[in-house]
Amino acid sequence: MSTEQTTYSAVLGVVLANIRKRQGIEQKDMADRMGLSQASYSRLEGGKSSFSVDQMYQAAASLQLPGEELSRQLNATVLELKSNGVEVVPQLRGNTTQAKEQGPGVGHLLVGGALAALLISLLSRK
Question: Which domains does the chain show, CATH number per domain?
């Protein structure tokens, strides 16, 4: 059984990064469109912070993408990861009962560049 894990927010960050790059938009420009600092947007895109529902739809609008299409791409990517043995889990907040029960060191969490590299390798196999 795989111990590789990632979060839905990290997957969303990679999906958004791929769309943003295909459209030729710099991270700073994306942050400006969303009213965020570049550092804040970078943490979202890198999977280090979790997206709110509002930010998800705001990001889709900033990319001139219907929210439904962003959700479709996110769901397809999650299914691809799961079919390749990567567990996709909610990002636990430090103040939740689950976070306190699980403690540190549960699985190998993939975020940012590691997740992007994994997705590229999985998608290039086809």
Answer: 4-124 (1.10.260.40)
